[in-house]
Amino acid sequence: MRLLLIGLSAAALLSACATPEAPPTPAPAVESQLIADLRILSADDMEGRDTGAPGGERARAYIIQRLEAIGVAAPPVGRLQPFSADGRTREGPRTFNGQNILGVIPGTRAGHRWIVVTAHYDHVGVNDGQIFNGADDNASGVATALALAERLKAEAPDHGVIFAFLDGEERGLLGARHFVNVPPVPLESIALNVNYDMTARADDGKLWVTGTYQHPTLRPILEPVGPVGNVSLSFGKDTPQDTGADNWVEASDHAAFFRAGLPFLYFGVDYHPDYHRPSDDFERVTPETFTNATELSINAFRALDRALGR
Prior knowledge:
By secondary structure, this protein is an alpha/beta fold. Helices cover 32% and strands 21% of the residues. It has one domain (31-307): 3-Layer(aba) Sandwich (Aminopeptidase). The chain has helices at residues 2-6, 10-18, 33-41, 54-70, 135-154, 174-181, 219-222, 254-259, 287-307, and strands at 80-87, 94-105, 110-120, 126-127, 130-131, 159-166, 190-196, 206-210, 232-235, 264-268. The protein has an eight-stranded mixed beta sheet with strand order 1-2-6-3-7-10-8-9, sandwiched between helices. It has a two-stranded antiparallel ribbon with strand order 4-5. Helix 3 packs antiparallel against helix 5 (135-154), helix 4 runs parallel beside helix 5 (135-154) and helix 5 (135-154) packs across helix 9 (287-307). The longest helix is centred in the last third of the chain and has 21 residues, at 287-307. The chain starts with a helix and ends with a helix. Mean pLDDT is 92; it is low at 1-28.
């Protein structure tokens, strides 16, 4: 810059001096842990997190690392719950070896009763040379569940909470079915399953809650939970009038709990054009909307935890 100024005419120099300096470029916002979890789990090096694949193993290692950093203990049965089951592929049935990840936070009031928080960490892997990163489906639900775990460690829940990061959802709810068949606690001690699957892309302002038609006593608990920013709770996708893809009662891992006769609630956003496509990437998520949806999910969980069993 000094050499350039020497060559300027006096008039040009005065003009340059009179021009106000441009404001400094603001520093980029610090990425929250929620957004970091989403970004890391949906990165290309996770290779779509398919069950039994190296990418799935990397995702599993990351989730375990996060649980241990948060201080979420493993239950007496252990951190991992391995299973082997026949699942679906485009080519036909195949045996998958998967592993659920478990964590437990004791309750302060009703510790003998459990809320099971589920979020599947697998996706569909690599197909025809394209990585299906599954940012919304379901790196988002995992990130939301990890954020909830951090809050519950800071302020303990009334009920005992089991976190189950499930494998093999995309292959036919394999991990969820195994969890229900070999539960770490007696099924009769489970007060509720809260399932997070696709919590990021609430671009229409709606975070859906499915299951209050089947369990109508839960809706009055959630109706007073107000919106967070641009995201509000919406109820439905669970009535006899909801048919086909508009009925979500058995659309994700909560179906295994439903079939076992256990209360469930599913929190998720509506379908979007990137659903089950290689374009379901981190860059398609609006951080503010995802943060609001997660805060709303946590508020809803707190309301349920306080109200159940009173």
